[in-house]
Amino acid sequence: MAKTVNVALIGQGFMGRTHSNAYLKVAKFFTNLPAVPVMHTSFGMKNEDCNAFTSRWGWQHCSTDWEKTVRSEEIDLVDIVTPNYMHMEPALAALEAGKPVATEKPLAGTLADARKMVEAAKQAKVPTFVWYNYRRVPAVALAYQLVREGRIGRIYHVRCVYLQDWGGPDTPLAWRFQKKLAGSGAHGDLNAHIVDMARFVTGDEIVEVTGAIAETFIKERPLASAGATGGIVQKTKSRAKGRVDVDDAVLFLARFRKGAVASFEATRLATGYKNRNGFEIHGEKGALRFNFEDMNYLDFYDNTEDPKTASWRHIIVTSGGNHPYVGAWWPDAHILGYEHGFVNQAADIMHVLARRKPVVPVPDFADAYETQRVLEAALLSAKERTPIKISELK
Ligand SMILES: NC(=O)c1ccc[n+]([C@@H]2O[C@H](COP(=O)([O-])OP(=O)(O)OC[C@H]3O[C@@H](n4cnc5c(N)ncnc54)[C@H](O)[C@@H]3O)[C@@H](O)[C@H]2O)c1
Q1: What is the rounded average pLDDT of the residues 374-379?
Q2: Nearest CA residue ID for atom 40, ligand 1
Q3: Which of 12, 7, 89, 91 is nearest to 45 (CA)?
Q4: Is CATH 1.10.443.10 correct for 137-332+365-384?
Q5: What is the CATH number of domain 3-134?
Q6: Where in the chain is the domain with CATH 3.30.360.10?
């Protein structure tokens, strides 16, 4: 019989909902899970309606004391979905109590916090996880598999963008625009995802950021009204303003260890793009192209084909027999969405906790730390207008 895993969820915002949905659905679709999550306790801030969230999503208990919750003997997995500044403390407390910990991305708001989390995880010798959920979008997992199968050969170019446009001047000064709460702006929010995806799909590590630009276009924003959080930012009519101390956009160039060159661009001011999160990877034998706004497809160019007929293939990634994760879902081409990546991740976390192999690797704290180092190098490169080797950062 599958073992049960009592989960404590720390945070009740946007990611609070995606993770709750994942725990709620995972055992219904992945019917042979070796471990099954039990939605034990949901933590909310004192200004949130903790009971309403708890009962809506089917958690058994509601808590406004995260410290007591993460240390409780009844809890087997602590899952942290609070703003970036509040990943480290609950993670360290949970690790000290010997509990496996999952946290949303980026690993932390700062490299120093992230380093402490990696060290604590090493000491605790328990599994850790970071919810870089796009790895578990079937098209991205398929790209990972095709690279491993040698279908694109030696990689020359990696081109990644994460473009959104919700960050105009009316968008209030939520936690995502405050350095002490978020660490950085579009960079830690969006570049974090595409750096993780680039490392994941290529299987290679970035060794140098050769140049970067960080820009804050909107230097003051209306103060957020009471209760406004950051997940789905509501526009405000408030006239009082506060200073923004994070980037709206960060662009950088990088080199991979095996020689590929890469570009990354993240912005909240790409007017017209709502959530264009994508990559293009060009290799000797082929190329891959992914755009999250069309997430049920992966484009593949096979450079070994007869040039007379070679062309981009627009592969629909939902044939249950062959495509990663899809066997757990609907019949072929019955289209998957954003939330499925989170349910897929919950399934993989349950596999790791039961010492079974996930469909594709789940980043632990040490893995996510490598992404954090790249992010830090890009900010430093932008500030100092100089290349930064990743090895220069501990
Ligand atoms: N994987 C993804 O696709 C994805 C998407 C969005 C956010 N995230 C990450 O998830 C985490 C949470 O983001 P979210 O969008 O759920 O945020 P949110 O603002 O919607 O929710 C944040 C939660 O943390 C609590 N909180 C604690 N301290 C807070 C503070 N000072 N200000 C505001 N809320 C505070 C809130 O009460 C709320 O329950 C962040 O680390 C973020 O980077 C990941």
Answers
A1: 98
A2: 83
A3: 12
A4: no
A5: 3.40.50.720
A6: 137-332+365-384
How is residue 291 written in tokens?
Answer: 């755009």
Please give the model's pTM, rounded to 2 decimal places: 0.97
Which tokens is 85 given? Answer: 């500044």
Cα separation, 24 vs 359, in Å, equals 20
Over residues 366-376, the pLDDT tens digits come to 999 999 999 99
Amino acid at 289: R
> How many angstroms separate the CA atoms of 41 and 127, rounded?
20
Q: Report which ligand 1 atom has the smallest distance to the Cα of 192.
A: 43
Ligand 1: residue whose CA is nearest its atom 32: 175
**Distance, CA of 317 to CA of 338 (rounded, Å):** 14
Confidence of residue 228 (pLDDT cuts 50, 70, 90): very low
pLDDT on residue 35: 98
Nearest CA to ligand 1 atom 17: 231
Contact 217, 249 (CB under 8 A): yes
Structure tokens belonging to residue 34: 């070796």
> How many whole angstroms from 106 Cα to the centroid of ligand 1?
11
C-alpha 46 – ligand 1 centre gap (Å): 15
Report d(CA 199, CA 163) in Å as an integer: 19
Query: Tokens at residue 71, please?
Result: 């240390």
Encode burial over 151-175: b for 16+ CB neighbours within 10 A, e otherwise. bbeebeebbbbbbbeebeeebbbbb
Which of 298, 238, 345 is CA-nearest to residue 22?
A: 345
**Class of residue 271 by CB neighbours under 10 A (exposed 0-12, middle 13-18, buried 19+):** exposed
Range(s) of the chain covered by CATH 3.40.50.720 = 3-134
User: What mean pLDDT comes out for the span 53-76?
Assistant: 97
User: Which protein residues are within 6 Å of ligand 1, measured from CB?
Assistant: 11-16, 44-45, 48, 81-84, 86, 104-105, 131, 133, 175, 181, 189, 229-231
Q: How far apart are CA 34 and CA 364, in angstroms?
A: 20
Ligand 1 atom index nearest CA of 18: 16
